[in-house]
Amino acid sequence: xxxLIKKYFKAKEFRKRGYSLKEISTRLGVxxxxxxxxxxxxxxxEQGMKRIDRRKQIGRIKSSxxxxxxxxxxxxxxxxxxxxxxxxxxxxxxxxxxxxxxLFCCEGTKDTRGGIAFINSDPYLVKTFVxxxxxxxxxxxxxxRVTLHLHEYHSVKKQILFWSEFTEIPPSQFIKPYQKxxxxxxxxxxxxGCASIRYYDSKLAQKLxxxxxxxxxxxxxxx
Length: 223
Fold this sequence. Notes:
The chain has 223 residues and is α+β, with helices and mostly antiparallel strands. The chain has helices spanning 2-16, 21-28, 32-38, 46-87, 93-107, 123-136, 156-167, 202-218; strands at 116-120, 144-151, 174-180, 194-199.
């Protein structure tokens, strides 16, 4: 009994100094429920409250890190599965042409009279679309034109060079960009603006759109 009383007073001291019930239970080898009963009327010191706040903050950081690691592992596994899936797909010209048509149907203009117009802010999506056009069709490079939609804080020269490198379209084929006035909202870090890719061939634009429409109709019969 004297030993338990000793632990009781020791527990009170720990609690006043801001130790958690779990910490006290572990340190003294007493059940958490017992410690909880002992601590009902204990007033924690100011220093103890600071310690509790610090430990809560550490706990939140650890929890956030654990969640981030779990997310990263999940994404890594999904990427591994996606790469394995893609390895089994024969990337023939017909398949790539269909991908090109579907991308155009999703992100391109539906009025094909002026040719192909494809706009997006994702550099890799734009690059992929342009690359598919080049790979699947007999393209006249001189027919490409690019208009950038930028914010006031963008450097026009820098963004033209950035998009030119991604699309492999010379800066000389970039039209004067449209710059939106600054609204006062926070700047979007690493935002490259939108690139509107135009390829002046109405026949090819119609061909892509109809191919995508026919594909969608084929796989949506009866829906």
